[in-house]
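Subject: design request, 159 residues
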């Protein structure tokens, strides 16, 4: 399958979706940020010096990032996002926070990049709010888990 963000001469371009039909588009992305057990406990207890509720600040940052993806990724279309859900699941055993972002809209192009951007910015926000006590945090495994809608149909990651 050819790369759609390049024309026949190899010049980059934004894909023309003018003639595509609108469908309901959904995407779910996931990732994590790992940290020391002490940092995780401070987050859970709401005792981080930079903000009591790190999770809520990161949730708002993720939603804002989803809505601004077209300003960050050069070939993304500006979209009328109709829904964003952000979930954080602390994992004490592995000393990490799992992050999940679900994005929904009706339109002519998918929302995978928006979901992936939301996870990335949520993790970066957690890092920013906790770096004073833990600079060793690691973000990783940011990946598309599911996407529905459009001509290519449903994609479901098999793990």
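Subject: RE: design request

Done. Sequence follows.
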């Amino acid at each position: 399958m050819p790369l759609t963000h390049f024309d026949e001469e190899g010049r980059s371009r934004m894909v023309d979706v003018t003639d595509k039909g609108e469908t309901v588009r959904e995407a779910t992305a996931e990732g994590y940020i790992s940290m020391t057990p002490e940092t995780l406990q401070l987050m859970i207890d709401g005792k981080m010096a930079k903000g009591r509720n790190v999770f809520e600040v990161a949730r708002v940052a993720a939603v804002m990032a989803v809505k601004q993806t077209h300003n960050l990724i050069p070939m993304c279309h500006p979209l009328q996002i109709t829904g964003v859900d952000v979930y954080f699941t602390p994992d004490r055993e592995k000393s990490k926070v799992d992050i999940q972002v679900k994005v929904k809209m009706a339109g002519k192009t998918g929302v995978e990049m928006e979901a992936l951007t939301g996870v990335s910015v949520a993790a970066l926000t957690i890092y920013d709010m906790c770096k004073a006590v833990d600079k060793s945090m690691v973000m990783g495994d940011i990946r598309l888990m599911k996407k529905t809608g459009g001509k290519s149909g449903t994609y479901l990651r098999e793990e």
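Residues 45 and 52 are 8 Å apart (CA to CA).
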